[in-house]
Amino acid sequence: MRRENWVYRYRNKEEMMVDELIKEDGKNTLTMGGKDYELPLFNLNTMCLIEDAFNTSVETLAKSFDTKRANTIRKIVYVLLQKKYPELTEESIGEMITMSNIADVSAKVAKAMGG
To answer: Of 5, 28, 11, 37, which is closest to residue 108 (Cα–Cα)?
Structure first.
């Protein structure tokens, strides 16, 4: 892919350190286990799925996500990806999120959620 198809977008210095790259076309691509997964745009249906999965409001969950609890990150990634990638399980996602990519995964999930 040609370099000019990418732009750097940062909300703060912490995201700059993650080197989050988002395509100009608005796609938010997450790389785990050597494969790219496209995170869906956060919409009302996505909010409903997340609220159902956690049995809580998205607002309450966002506060939990800020603490970067491993279980929360894994489950949100699962909920966001299950429609497009039904072969993934929470366990397989957990195996693909490692200490080397957890910061990137967290930043991209936050971006998908509009954060």
So the answer is: 28
